[in-house]
Amino acid sequence: MLPLYLEKLTPAELNSRADTLKNMLEECRLCPNECSVNRLAGETGNCHSTDEVVISSYGPHFGEEPELVGLYGSGTIFFTNCNLSCIYCQNYDISQLGIGNRISIDELANIMISLQSRGCHNINLVTPTHFVPQIVEALIIAIEKGLEIPLVYNCGGYESVETLRLLEDIIDIYMPDIKYSDNEIATRLSGIKNYWNVVRSAIKEMHRQVGDLHIDRKGIAKRGLLIRHLVLPNNLAGSEKVIDFIADEISKETYLNIMDQYHPAFKAAEDKKLKRRIKPDEYERVVEYARFKGLHRGL
């Protein structure tokens, strides 16, 4: 199975998408924050990013889902900054403090090629939302150099449907978080508006594009939707409502990774309900509810 960007799109179509996305940076509306700043002129919005790409690291990653890791790892590129402002972020030095190195579009393309040459099964774009135009530009160069492995869009779920439609037939595997099922909690903990409304529309669009997760005979994911959900203490994530949405409105064949690794980090102590790790029964209750709703892949 070829990646979608080779199977579906011509070079001319990819260049047209890249131009459209780059123009969106003039009054930035790449994500639902819609800051309307001119990032091409060096202005920054909620993501604290201009048009310059900043990454913290890259390399084969063996801590992702087994279907992404395989034998040789998922080729992760960790982008600096984020369009969310989660007060408990476990990678806050990257996402909130902006630690990283500026790279050119050519360098980003070369990183993709280097990860492929090291045997990685995919290019895993971690927190890519605010750098989508630059990623597509780099992809065009990487294709010319022989890139032929799937692209993974590893995001926080706060995505613009307008931007996602411009990524159709470019992204092979969408891997969003669904963080919350309550808008007010999302505002309090992540500094964003209407998260629950936004994430449902985004997930539906992702699923429309790529469908349920397709895994080849070697156990490697090639295309489709993979959802992550982090269980938070005191049910702050509203997990059962999240699961209802996935099972009832997306697909019971959805690959869902229910994660249990929450620990208080960054500014979590500012919220009294976030001060502790989750309890085993809090996690088990969510997994059992997912099974009750008919979800069975990835649990």
Describe the structure.
The protein has one domain: TIM Barrel (Alpha-Beta Barrel). It is globular. It has helices at 4-7, 11-23, 66-69, 92-95, 105-117, 132-144, 161-166, 183-190, 195-210, 239-250, 280-292, and strands spanning 53-61, 74-79, 101-103, 123-126, 151-155, 173-176, 214-215, 221-230, 255-259. The mean pLDDT is 97. Strands 1, 2, 3, 4, 5, 6, 7, 8 and 9 form a nine-stranded mixed beta sheet that branches. Helices cover 35% and strands 16% of the residues. It starts with a helix and ends in a 7-residue tail after the last helix. The chain has 299 residues and is an alpha/beta fold.
Radius of gyration, taken over Cα atoms and rounded to an integer in Å: 18 Å
The helix fraction, in percent, is 25-40%
| Poorly predicted ranges | none
* CATH architectural group: Alpha-Beta Barrel
Largest sheet, in brief, is: 9 strands, mixed
Strand tally: 9
The end-to-end span amounts to 26 Å
Shape designation: globular
Query: What is the chain-wise order of helices and strands?
Result: HHEHEHEHEHEHEHHEEHEH
* Mean pLDDT across every amino acid position: 97
